[in-house]
Amino acid sequence: xxxxxxxxDSGVGGLSVLHHIRxxxxxxxxxxxxxxxxxxxxxxxxxxxxxxxxTLTRFLLDQGAEAIVIACNTATAAxxxxxxxxxxxxxxxxMEPAVKPAVAATKxxxxxxxxxxxxxxxxxxxxxxxxxxxxxKIVTQGCPGLVEAVERGDLRGLETRRLVERYTAPLLKAxxxxxxxxxxxxxxxxxxxxxxxxxxxxxxxxxxxVARELKxxxxxxxxxRDKNGTAGVESFYTSGxxxxxxxIMSLLWQRDATVQxxxxxxx
Length: 267
Known about the structure:
With about 270 residues, the chain is an alpha/beta fold. About 45% of the residues lie in helices and about 15% in strands. The strands form two sheets. It has a six-stranded parallel β-sheet with strand order 4-3-1-2-9-10, with helices on both faces. Strands 6-5-7-8 form a four-stranded parallel β-sheet, with helices on both faces. The two termini are about 30 Å apart.
């Protein structure tokens, strides 16, 4: 039997992390849930997000997941602690804005953070700043509407460009030469951000680091599995409408994705 890894996000953004997970664990079966019926998480209360995270984790465990990845910065801030308490017998790997590597990368001494309001207002993010910012100035920017643009598959359209211009402008004006992509949706508009901000600006996200941490924990904490040399497969679910989810997830996954409806009791 192959290893089974469960991954969830508020919507399709976590596919940016799933790409890295597939590279790190080529022989694992991956189950991905886009909670698109409840997207965006950024304007929801922490209690609401925590409830959704618990529900989605239970679904993934019902499907045989041996480890869970919270592929969402906002859900990490609201629910990672609770999930780890409730499901302490399995590895739960979470996201967080990449403050430490961004601080190491900046030459101007100013780092900008693009994130959801929920992430920026969280105690977890405040703790990251206190721990790693040091003498570096951190300038934050909430990005309402950018998650929704990615959910529509609008990665380079005029409306998305205007959002990117609006949200990067104050960070660049403040002197930021490094931008943290503090939401898993944002790597999908990274080419547009580079175009708007300039090639000299460094973009930092944590997808690859999350995949490495997942592999480390899987290898050290889970019973070994015989490798039969076959590639793992992906299963995709959504709490939203299946047809648009199939179109958008196929676009972002860069190959055909067969998306199933999440059972009603998990919606």
